[in-house]
Amino acid sequence: MREQAPGKTKPQRAKRHALLYHQRLSEQYFWPAVGIVAVTAALLVWNPSKLEPFRLLVSVALACSGMILALTFAFRLRAYAICADQALLVQLPFYHFTIPYRAIKNVRPTELFRMYPPREQSWGQRRFLEPIFETTVLVIELDTLPAHTSWLRFWMSKYMLSPDTTGVIIAVRDWLKFRADLDEQRSKSRRLAP
Q1: Mean pLDDT across the stretch 4-33?
Q2: For an engineered disulfide with 19, which of 79, 116, 121, 138 has Cβ 3.0 to 4.6 Å away?
Q3: How far is CA 177 from CA 69, 89, 186, in A?
């Protein structure tokens, strides 16, 4: 193993902080999708004669549930926030945006239920958010959003947009570690700014 020269440190790779909404979505659909894939695959392999007229339908169910299973992995693996050198990168499964540290006005912790009271959400939304309503989230206040509101809502949950200020809401498991990473990178970028 090669030793590093004294005084030189290897740059650390920025930590990925998985986004809770997408993890929750993955958890909600993973096991039902696994069950449907297993049952439909077993039916196609077993191939009983009474199932012959429905073989195409079972094949479509297998393909659709397999696609849902693949999407649950994509949602789990491709939804995260990274405190990079110059900006906060928010990667969503099919979209990403960056927020330069100089654009951040304020970062404040709060609980999700304070931003979006459960009684004001529909039954389906409450059921989906119930495990994360008590979670502490970080509200990142900005002068302007990284894209138009309607464009952001197309790609991400409305629960990622602050209802009372211009900004985004980042929900991760270890919000203290994420906040520490964010504060450290913001301080570094202020020190390096001309």
Answers
A1: 74
A2: 79
A3: 30, 16, 14
